[in-house]
Amino acid sequence: MQITVRRTGGYAGSQNVSSIDTSGLEASQRTRIEQLVRDAAASVRPGEEAIGADLMRYEITIRENGTNRSLAWTDDGTFGPVKQLIEEVQQLS
């Protein structure tokens, strides 16, 4: 599974991209990241985005078995599976 996190926004309108391929991770890390992907996908509700001009916005692309899926999320300061997935990918990238 390949996971790409694209971050945009903030005061300066910066952009950052982090990517990992779970096949290169240790088994325990791979299992954890893949579970976070499932949890994040289940927690994102379309049309439910925080509003704020300076908030960070994230687009997460997951490539698995020849298919792509994307999640969009705006960081409103809450911690949950999406934020946890983003942090893990950024650390491992």
How would you characterize the overall build of this protein?
The chain has 93 residues and is of the alpha+beta class. The protein has one domain (2-92). Helices cover 31% and strands 35% of the residues. It contains 2 helices and 4 strands; from the N terminus they run E-E-H-E-E-H. The protein has helices at residues 27-43, 81-92, and strands spanning 2-9, 14-21, 56-64, 67-74. A 4-stranded antiparallel sheet has the order 2-1-3-4, covered by helices on one side. A hairpin with a 4-residue loop joins strand 1 (2-9) and strand 2. Helix 1 (27-43) runs antiparallel to helix 2 (81-92). The longest helix is centred in the middle third of the chain and has 17 residues, at 27-43. The chain starts with a strand and ends with a helix. The model has no long low-confidence stretch (mean pLDDT 88).
Keywords, please?
alpha+beta, 4-stranded antiparallel beta sheet, 2 helices, 93 residues, single chain
Our measurement of the CA-to-CA distance between the termini, rounded to an integer number of angstroms, reads 14 Å
Strand content: 35-45%
The helix tally amounts to 2
How much is the average pLDDT?
88
The neighbouring-strand order within the major sheet is: 2-1-3-4
Shape: globular
Number of domains: 1
Report the major sheet: 4 strands, antiparallel
Give the structural class. alpha+beta
Order of helices and strands: EEHEEH
Radius of gyration over alpha carbons?
A: 13 Å
Low-confidence stretches: none
Oligomer: single chain
Helix content: 25-40%
Count the beta strands: 4
